[in-house]
Each structure stands twice: as C-alpha cells, then as structure tokens.
Q: What sequence folds into this?
C-alpha cells in the first residue's frame, strides 16, 4: 500500500483483511467482493468482482461521477476499517494522530485524483467514515465477530464471497 501500512506478521494481515471485509459489508457492498486469501501477497489478498471501480460509458456524466464517489467511499471505508481492526481489535490500542493524518493525506490525494473532489468534501467524507468505523470497531460484539472470523480465515486460508457473508452474518444482528 502506498501509505506505509505494511503488515508486520500474519496476525496483522489477517486482522487487516478482516477489517476490510467488515468495511465492505457495513457499506452494503458485499456484491463487490469475490474472495479473500491469506496466502496472497500484500495488496492482492482481496479479490473483487468486475463491478468495482468500473463505470458505464453510456451513463450520464453526473451519474458516472456519483458512481465514482460511491466507489471511493467504499475504498475509504475499507482502508479505515483495515487500520481500525488491526489497532482497536488486535492490538487493543488506538490510532495515532500521525497515522490518521497519513491515511487522510493519502485519501485526500486519491479523492482529488479519482473524483475531482474538493478538500472540504474529502474531509467531510473522511470524518463521517472514520467516526462510523470507530463506532463499529469499538463495539464488543463486533470485536467478538472479528476474532471468530480471523480464526476461521486462518483455518481455511481463503474464503469465497458466500463464506465471507456467512461468517459475518452476525453483524446484521448487532
């Protein structure tokens, strides 16, 4: 990842992948994920369907832009969820202001590049996603689900979309 969030070991990687899976589920975008694999190289652990980050060329410009912003928000949520799952659940700690600012700067650059968003728009989206993911990963019930998911992922080494959804079904009951 371009912002220096390399995994330090397999546990760190597993919790990061789990965070991204939860992030995509709580964004109601599970249709975009195809599979996950703990044995893939960093950056390739999560496979997506062809629907992610594609736009229909026949779509009107405004709808196309809205689609890109939605995709950007999903990616933002996944990145924040990765970081929070690793720090709040695995390490039972917090996220330093330095790391938060580093992630924000990366997402700010991407938001400008991908969606031509203004800084205030990016800041609003970031703050909203950050607060949302913070509530999720500080929830004891979610933390229990995370630990179960990590255990299952370590055991199976990979999961298809249906297995991911099944393993995270308890999220909908919280």
A:
């Amino acid at each position: 990842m371009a912002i220096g969030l390399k995994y330090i070991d397999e546990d760190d990687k597993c919790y990061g992948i789990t965070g991204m899976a939860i992030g995509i589920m709580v964004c109601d975008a599970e249709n975009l994920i195809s599979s996950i694999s703990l044995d893939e190289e960093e950056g390739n652990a999560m496979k997506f369907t062809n629907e992610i980050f594609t736009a229909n060329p026949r779509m009107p410009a405004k709808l196309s832009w809205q689609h890109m912003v939605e995709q950007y928000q999903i990616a933002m949520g996944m990145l924040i969820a990765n970081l929070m799952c690793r720090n709040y659940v695995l390490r039972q700690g917090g996220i330093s202001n330095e790391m938060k600012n580093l992630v924000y700067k990366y997402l700010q650059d991407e938001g400008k590049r991908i969606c031509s968003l203004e800084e205030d728009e990016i800041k609003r989206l970031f703050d909203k996603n950050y607060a949302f993911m913070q509530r999720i990963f500080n929830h004891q019930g979610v933390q229990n689900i995370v630990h179960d998911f990590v255990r299952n992922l370590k055991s199976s080494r990979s999961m298809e979309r249906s297995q991911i959804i099944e393993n995270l079904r308890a999220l909908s009951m919280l």
